[in-house]
Amino acid sequence: MDTMTLWHLTGWEFAALAFAALLVGFSKTAVSGANTVSLAIFAAVLPARASTGILLPVLIAGDVLAVLTYRRHAHWPTLWRLFPAVGVGVVVGTLFLVWADDAVVRTSIGVILLFMAGVTVWRRRRADAAEQPDEVTSRTGRAKARSYGVLGGFTTMVANAGGPVMSMYLLSAGFRKLGFLGTSAFFFLIVNVSKLPFSAGLGLIDGHSLLLDAVLVVFVVPGAFLGKWAVTRINQRLFERLVIAATVVGGLQLLLA
């Protein structure tokens, strides 16, 4: 795998990855989907294709902390409804990674980031409109779960960028803050763990990447505690605007590099 070890990183590169890891912890316990900024940082510092495998264990560490924090608030019927479609999306994403080289993956991550920013904006406008959400047990609700599940599985496999897709689905299904955080915590822990054999089989995870992960996970923990403290205090509207702006900048940087 064309990746970097800890000793190949400059001080500024390591600082950027450490900040991205801290933001992963924060996003998992406060604002789901904010780790698209972490994705952009990892893809900018590391080889784009390899960055998806290096970021995955860091995300799993954040997922574990989120589950420990919000485990009582998960809605399992919604999770079971999503998993089959997500599995299809993960398989499609794996096949894409078999075919794609680093340049294609880098461009794809940039496009996905910009698309996710658009999805987030659209989600916010729907929330502002205060429309009645679709019942998850209705025909429309089941179709929505399948479509979002496939898209979420593909984006999370190719770029670890399924957060905004699933955030949009859970909000449109009427989840409040704690139910949203608990359900998304279990969702991403299960999905990300299931991606490990696919990523290892593609050569995206090896001993060098795991060594770097072991160092970066240290920064996930304070980020998670910061998110837990901030979740009841943060001005989420302002923060989401900052996340959208940073995501757009990150996506454009990857496309223009």
UniProtKB/TrEMBL annotation:
<comment type="similarity">
    <text>Belongs to the 4-toluene sulfonate uptake permease (TSUP) (TC 2.A.102) family.</text>
</comment>
<keyword id="KW-1003">Cell membrane</keyword>
<keyword id="KW-1133">Transmembrane helix</keyword>
<dbReference type="InterPro" id="IPR052017">
    <property type="entry name" value="TSUP"/>
</dbReference>
<dbReference type="InterPro" id="IPR002781">
    <property type="entry name" value="TM_pro_TauE-like"/>
</dbReference>
<keyword id="KW-0813">Transport</keyword>
<feature type="transmembrane region" description="Helical">
    <location>
        <begin position="49"/>
        <end position="70"/>
    </location>
</feature>
<dbReference type="Pfam" id="PF01925">
    <property type="entry name" value="TauE"/>
</dbReference>
<feature type="transmembrane region" description="Helical">
    <location>
        <begin position="178"/>
        <end position="198"/>
    </location>
</feature>
<keyword id="KW-0472">Membrane</keyword>
<keyword id="KW-0812">Transmembrane</keyword>
<feature type="transmembrane region" description="Helical">
    <location>
        <begin position="105"/>
        <end position="122"/>
    </location>
</feature>
<protein>
    <recommendedName>
        <fullName>Probable membrane transporter protein</fullName>
    </recommendedName>
</protein>
<feature type="transmembrane region" description="Helical">
    <location>
        <begin position="210"/>
        <end position="231"/>
    </location>
</feature>
<feature type="transmembrane region" description="Helical">
    <location>
        <begin position="82"/>
        <end position="99"/>
    </location>
</feature>
